[in-house]
């Protein structure tokens, strides 16, 4: 089966090479992988390599790689699949090296491991590469999965992927986000003797740390001026359009902060036209504390801005899928979102607890907003969100415990 996988991958890479003649993005995918040197000077430390598909997975492991004992004990290398993850991951002071993961072909994975010589290889959440896994297992290099998440419709769980699932079952440790993932793996033949632990979501630790150290935004404090703020986080055009009429019904002491998913000049202009009857201030403009709507036409401010909100609408779930809700809920904001939340287990949990509301159209959205305007409704939900997020912390603890005690087991070269 591995031969079939490799043959299909070779054909896909040949096709991608052809496409790269016409696509700069695809061409970059190949160019950045040329002439990488994976040799490292670990200075006597064990080498640990975390593989992250992209930036989101990298953010998950920051609670692990920022641990002082991990720094002392390991040379930390990070590999990425996507160029965007590699470019935007701020690894300074957290990792000793970062690389693009080479193509998953036997010769390339062998050369990669010959140079890097990892003592421990950690996959983050998913993005499994089976020639790499096969070579790691041949060399008896320890393999872990952290923040693992499995869903019933996952391609890895289809009948024809069974040989590859067995490779995952050969990992030395599986750290899973939730019990549902464990039940799914057991249903598909998870051996009883494998080390597996349901320890929660590393994102909860990461987000809690970020929120506790969030930057104070005096400009938003002045703009809020003791009033109340509804935040639209990572909103998409269709969702913003739903608010066109609703915002006019808000009480005078409520303002709206909009952080659109698309911060291009074109889209910001469209939002201004959409809310043309309101006084609007952009983050990039001189401050206007009297404006009714503040638009964050920049990246990197929203996470800290949630601390000034009363409740939030989080975008994406009327389209491909919900954006990050953890920052908002950690600050105690009840959340409203669209219906596409099936791939986000935390959203389903928060909905059951009662501080996340799924709406399917403008009428339901207006009803939920109207409901959350009342302090008597909103404040108990806010406290519930805070205590829930506090209780979800600790996913990093068991992983760090095992990292601290790891002795390594590499076969002689």
Mean pLDDT: 94
Would you report the number of β strands? 14
CATH topology label of the largest domain: Rossmann fold
| Main β-sheet description | 7 strands, parallel
CATH level-four homologous superfamily name of the largest domain: 3-Deoxy-D-manno-octulosonic-acid transferase, N-terminal domain
General form: globular
Count of folded domains:
2
- The level 1 CATH classification of the largest domain is Alpha Beta
From the structure above, extract its key features.
413 residues, alpha/beta, Rossmann fold, 7-stranded parallel β-sheet, globular
Compose a concise summary of this entry.
By secondary structure, this protein is an alpha/beta fold. The protein contains 19 helices and 14 strands.
Question: Care to describe what's here?
Answer:
The protein has 413 residues and is α/β, with parallel strands linked by helices. It folds into two domains: 29-200 and 394-405, 3-Layer(aba) Sandwich (Rossmann fold), CATH 3.40.50.11720; 213-391, Glycogen Phosphorylase B (Rossmann fold, 3-Layer(aba) Sandwich). Helix content is 44%, strand content 16%. The chain has 19 helices and 14 strands. A seven-stranded parallel beta sheet has the order 3-2-1-4-5-6-7, with helices on both faces. Strands 10-11-9-8-12-13-14 form a seven-stranded parallel beta sheet. β4, α7 (130-138) and β5 (142-148) form a beta-alpha-beta unit. α3 crosses α10 (202-212). It is globular.
């Amino acid at each position: 089966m591995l031969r079939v996988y490799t043959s299909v991958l070779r054909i896909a890479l040949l096709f991608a090479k052809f496409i790269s003649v016409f696509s700069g993005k695809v061409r970059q995918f190949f160019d950045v992988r040329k002439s990488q040197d994976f040799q490292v000077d670990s200075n006597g430390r064990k080498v640990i390599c975390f593989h992250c598909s992209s930036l989101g997975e990298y953010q998950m492991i920051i609670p692990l790689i920022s641990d002082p004992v991990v720094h002392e004990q390991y040379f930390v290398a990070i590999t990425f699949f996507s160029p965007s993850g590699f470019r935007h991951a701020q690894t300074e002071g957290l990792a000793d090296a970062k690389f693009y993961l080479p193509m998953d072909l036997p010769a390339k994975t062998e050369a990669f491991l010959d140079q890097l010589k990892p003592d421990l290889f950690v996959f983050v959440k998913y993005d499994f590469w089976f020639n790499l896994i096969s070579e790691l297992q041949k060399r008896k290099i320890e393999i872990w999965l952290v923040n693992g998440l499995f869903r019933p419709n996952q391609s890895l769980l289809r009948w024809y992927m069974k040989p590859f699932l067995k490779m995952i079952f050969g990992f030395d440790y599986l750290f899973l986000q939730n019990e549902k993932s464990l039940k799914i793996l057991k249903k598909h033949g998870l051996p009883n003797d494998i080390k597996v632990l349901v320890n929660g979501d590393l994102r909860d630790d990461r987000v809690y740390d970020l929120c506790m150290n969030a930057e104070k935004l005096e400009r938003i404090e002045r703009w809020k001026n003791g009033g109340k703020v509804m935040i639209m986080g990572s909103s998409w055009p269709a969702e913003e359009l739903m608010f066109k009429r609703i915002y006019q019904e808000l009480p005078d002491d409520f303002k709206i902060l909009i952080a659109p998913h698309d911060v291009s000049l074109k889209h910001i202009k469209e939002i201004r036209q959409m809310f043309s009857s309101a006084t609007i201030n952009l983050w990039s403009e001189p401050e206007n504390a009297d404006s009714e709507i503040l638009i964050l036409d920049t990246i990197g401010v929203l996470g800290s801005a949630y601390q000034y909100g009363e409740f939030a609408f989080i975008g994406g779930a009327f389209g491909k899928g919900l954006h990050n809700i953890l920052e908002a809920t950690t600050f105690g904001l009840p959340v409203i979102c669209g219906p596409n939340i099936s791939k986000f287990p935390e959203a389903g949990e928060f909905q059951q607890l009662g501080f996340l509301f799924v709406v399917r159209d403008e009428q339901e959205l207006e009803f939920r907003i109207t409901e959350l305007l009342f302090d008597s409704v909103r404040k108990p939900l806010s406290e519930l969100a805070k205590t829930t997020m506090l209780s979800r912390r600790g996913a990093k603890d068991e992983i760090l415990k095992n990292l601290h005690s790891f002795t390594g087991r590499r076969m002689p070269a």
